[in-house]
């Protein structure tokens, strides 16, 4: 039986159809409720109306609430939303009670956010969208504000630890950015349809990956049995006037105790509100997906079933998005074919599968578990390019000259049959001449050698145009046969990884170039030019190591002392810049590339590469093509991972719609010496003409001029390509924002779980000594990274007992007043683990003399 959905699930249904109004019986059908649950549905709808999340029309239909007019108290001139001193944005809370508001629209080049003191937070919680009255702080340096109203609540559910009290039971949120306890009224310790004596909690255990099916858990017969356990709570009452006591909720499910196996993943999933259970209608559509390919479908696709196509992935991979094939051409060139799973054929626009995929945005990968974007029936089944079975694909055929430049490419729907499921390790062993691997894959060995040859050539061309390759190693968790963590190692990036990386980059660039050449609105993967101030701040640090990016910069940097307080162990200087604008600093990816080459193999490579990465902006999705700074590519998109990324699925739909207009496929040959205007005819609502001029439609980022000459087959009569769909610019803009946010959410969740596992692992090594690298400085101490374990922690300044140490910001060091001993960025020291804080996921070290 389906459990009654949470308020968040009801809202998700409405958000999937923002312009639709639902009758009560339509909720029952869509949510697959029983007749006995109608009363609870009415209560939930009333609760959401009280929270101003939804509204009811005169004919008893429900829809998302319209933006509410300002209450009388806030209609004064100072609080009017249109006034210049009132901004709207997302609140980022802090565990100490204060917060920052990131405005929806950037205020200025220097004011990126607004500080909100704890006393001015009002009824707002972390993540809420709020209106803020803004003023300049007393020192005139930063913006401060107070919350006027909450526009949209972000937290409908909160995960935390259940505590039994003498007067009332409470839940302490796991997310410390919500610094209030949540009161659980009597009778709300169980979901509404359950009772203390005979009911059962939804409790963690026995979940099938990808489906969200849970086994029965032991009955919990008293709130006392919940004491100390982690629970997921639905907030039923929010504060109206900033009173913490107004936060009330009801328990939705019990996850278990914090230190129980697997509970850490469950907590992180709920803390970051990752959708992790597929609704019944989504699973039904996945189960109904056709497992056989119809003959009529094969007839309108290019047949690659006779080619030696292979997939190359990690040892534990189960979903295979991409397969590759390389052949030598007459004249010394190459034909690289990249086949990508045709997910759009099975996940149609407007279906329950599509709505759920859009809601998730991306698959999330934890060390010991994945939260997939699509159900396993699709992601590991019919969509996956599994070996020795027929699969539908979208293929990019690239003709590459002997110098590694793309001379032509073709985009076609296809059918393939992968001959082998290869791993990165096996391909590496073959190319290294390891006999066992060579004998096992003897028939494919020459193909892999050709792939290596082409990949190195493509990489050389990328280097020439200025593409950056930091090649920073990542931590990898090791588990024993019982799933328990036993170690942390550095992940290996071998030649097989580089082969796939180069081939996918080439395919993504070809698809992006085609869409831009045809002036078709699409989702681009962009990476903007770094902020000049960030670049100069990095230059200041790099100079202390004797390095520089070598940018042509004017004399903009000055220092003035802002505070010297040796009693507080601080000597702070304020950087000032004279009218610094983006155009004042001419920085390109080549500046970064040259410095990474100089740093290769040097002791300071790790710290400076890390700081260089921090000086760059974060890549994101956009409906506007702004180029990709790090790749030195004028046009780039994500096309190669539609099983795990929703933007790739959108690009597939747009590409299929464009190919349908061109007769089923497109062949682009690049010629030098001309320019080309190209608008795909007959596409409603896509009248934007883009001038593909010098360097704009460059397949591999080449700056030389060119034109695109089309050699297209005549349109083939018959049914259109399944899953094809153009997307208009307003919808693309919304998709770019939501998928970028989903990507950041997934990255934060993955990072936090990794830190949690590291801290738990280090708890057993208390008192041990380690070699470490200083990676950050602050007035209260310095941060270190253990050389062999990728584990970070703090050395508090008060633990440095051989002298009185002061943080000297301008020197970039913590310096002893008498001995002048200095701890600098990049310094290597030996430390001892003194303290493990599992609640805050933090480690504390001290320096070993």
Describe the structure.
The longest helix is centred in the last third of the chain and has 34 residues, at 729-762. The strands form eleven sheets. Strands 14, 16, 17, 20, 21, 29 and 32 form a seven-stranded mixed β-sheet that branches. Strands 10-9-8-12-13-11 form a six-stranded mixed β-sheet, with helices on one face. It has a five-stranded antiparallel β-sheet with strand order 5-4-3-6-7, with no helix packed on it. It has 849 residues and is of the alpha+beta class. Strand 37 and strand 38 (822-824) form a beta hairpin. The protein contains 17 helices and 40 strands. Among the domains are: 1-66, Orthogonal Bundle (Arc Repressor Mutant, subunit A), CATH 1.10.10; 72-152, Nucleic acid-binding proteins (OB fold (Dihydrolipoamide Acetyltransferase, E2P)); 284-465 and 472-522 and 640-666 and 682-691, no CATH class; 529-616, no CATH class; 766-847, OB fold (Dihydrolipoamide Acetyltransferase, E2P), CATH 2.40.50. Helices cover 25% and strands 27% of the residues.
